[in-house]
Amino acid sequence: MVYVIAQNGKPLMPTEHYGKVRWLLKKKRAKVVKRSPFTIQLLYGSGNERVQPVTLGVDTGYQTAGCSASTESKILFEAEEEMRNDIPKLLTERREKRKTRRSRKTRYRQARFDNRRRIEGWLPPSIEEKLSAHQEMVAFISSFLPVSSIVIETSAFDIQKIKNSDIEGKSYQEGEQLGFWNTREYVLYRDGHKCRICGGKSKDKTLEVHHVIRRSDGGTDRPDNLITLCSHCHDGVHKGIVKPIFKKAPQFKAETLMSVMRWELYSRLQKLYGKENVSMTYGYLTKNTRITHNLEKSHHVDARCIAGHPEASSDEGWYYMRKTRSHNRKIHKDTILKGGERKLNQTEKLIGGFGLFDIVRYGDDVCYIHGRRASGYFDIRKLDGARVHSGIHYRNLTLVERVNTRTIERRKPIPLLSTEAGVSSAMI
Ligand SMILES: [Zn+2]
User: Fold this and answer.
1) What separation in Å is there between the alpha carbon of 200 and the centre of ligand 1?
2) What's the 223 CA to ligand 1 centre distance in angstroms?
3) Within a domain: residue 410?
4) Which of 239, 264, 291 is at the close of a domain?
5) Is pLDDT of 84 > 60?
6) How far is the CA of 201 from the centre of ligand 1 (A)?
7) How far is the CA of 205 from the centre of ligand 1 (A)?
8) CA of 202 to the centre of ligand 1 (A)
9) 208 with 287, same domain?
10) What is d(CA 21, CA 17) in angstroms, rounded to the nearest whole number?
11) What is the mean pLDDT of residues 326-349?
């Protein structure tokens, strides 16, 4: 699929008429603006071409986020993005460095510890980073697809529904399945996705929700009668082998932060793209959609279910994206050279025309620049981290694409498409 941008910069519907794309490029009626995903910009026309409604589903994640832009029947773009996890490490490092600076013999500085106030809506930097990564992902996709509505999952379950509805035992039998799915997700969340008997010691990964008082004995489907057990312990309880002594529900921090993040993302997207264009859904609905449509469990498929288009299809595959740091703020190396000289830590923005993380071609390999030396010898790797060469001079490399903070790689091959420059779009 080739993504198309109008002359005025507005995204249009993508096309699969590769012949036409080739002709447009050849006749200089369009130019290539991005190689992955392959995007062209028309150099003629009004930009008032008709577009279909495109829904973008976002599956928020702590490690990996998924997104899927689709119409009812067709997947237009799907990707998974790996989040940066180096923020806490970098901050700890900085804190350590500052500590030593304070104890060094320097001029007197007045103590500063009680004169700082956190601004309203402050989030831990690790979460703030993830939040902006999600925001950037939405902006990135909106730059080449005419996204008309955005759907995000704000929470795994609908707590209002659990509180208000009278989910008695009968509702389950009457086929009010979705209500139970909701409660089930809540119970799993409350118990921290851990077995309340063994706490995960049985190594059984399958979690089930157990009725403390059986339904046949009048037990309800309300959360207070439900408890998370692993399949192993659940079996044991029903066979009478394992004594049902339940441990206290564990505390979990990451999950709470994630739910704060999801709601914050929801309100920020509403501010950016308009209240009427951004809506929300719940995790239990996504899960139900995925299972009833017999779809695989992955972030980009979940995003497709969130968008409400589980029947949409495509043979295009999906993209893998990774966020990288945009700048190295550390000015000096840690070790001071003989003679007390501080060696600079930062290299030039470009060395021989190449920047960090730029996508380059080396022989038949397409890789990215992982590390650079001022001497011009670079460390080049595949996106999955496999080293291709640890010291290759830039003379042997050709620039494929300039990368700023997002590296992107296709996860399933597509037909090759030659352009004027003789470069193919099927690069990593
Ligand atoms: Zn267990």
Assistant:
1) 6
2) 19
3) no
4) 239
5) yes
6) 7
7) 9
8) 5
9) no
10) 6
11) 80
Residues 310 and 351 grouped into a single domain: no
Specify the pTM. Answer: 0.77
Residue 268 pLDDT class (50, 70, 90 cuts): very high
Tell me the pLDDT tens digit for each residue of 198-240: 888 888 888 999 988 888 888 888 888 889 999 999 999 888 8
Is residue 329, in this structure, part of any structural domain at all? no
Residues 151 and 170 in one domain: no
CATH number of the domain that residue 60 is part of: 3.30.420.10
CATH number assigned to the domain comprising residue 377: 2.30.30
Q: Can you give the residue range of the structural domain that contains 219? A: 164-239
Distance from residue 197's CA to the centre of ligand 1 (Å): 5
- What value does the mean pLDDT take over residues 26-43? 91
CA of 190 to the centre of ligand 1 (A): 16
Distance 98 CA to ligand 1 centre (A): 45
Asked whether residue 335 is assigned to any structural domain, the reply reads no
List the shell of residues around ion ligand 1, using CB closer than 5 Å: 195, 197-198, 202, 230, 233
Distance in Å, CA 231 to ligand 1 centroid: 7
Q: Is the pLDDT of residue 346 over 90?
A: no
CA of 252 to the centre of ligand 1 (A): 18
Strands (E), 231-327: 278-282, 319-323
Examine the domain organization and report whether 127 and 271 are in the same domain. yes
| Rounded distance from Cα 260 to ligand 1 centre (Å) | 29
Q: Which residues contact 2 (CB under 8 A, 6 or more apart)?
A: 14, 15, 16, 18, 21, 38, 39, 40, 417, 425
Distance 234 CA to ligand 1 centre (A): 7
**Beta bridge partners of residue 67, listed in sequence order:** 58, 79
The DSSP result for 271-297, as a single string, is HHH-GGGEEEEEHHHHHHHHHHTT---
Collapse the DSSP code of 55 into the 3-class scheme (helix H, G, I; strand E, B; otherwise coil) and give the result: strand
- Same domain? For 151 and 168 the reply is no
What's the CA-to-centroid distance between 67 and ligand 1, angstroms? 34
Q: What are phi and psi of 298, to 5 degrees?
A: -155, 165
In a shared domain, residues 64 and 152: yes
Show the tokens assigned to 58: 């976002």
Cα(257)–Cα(238) distance, rounded to whole angstroms?
A: 36
Q: Do the domain assignments include residue 32?
A: no
Average per-residue pLDDT in the chain?
A: 83
* pLDDT in the model for residue 251: 62
- Cα(335) to ligand 1 centroid in Å equals 50
| Angstrom distances, CA of residue 52 to CA of 59, 154, 194, 312 | 22, 26, 44, 14
How many A from CA of 237 to the centre of ligand 1? 10
Total structural domains within the chain: 3
Query: Are residue 146 and residue 292 in the same domain, yes or no?
Result: yes
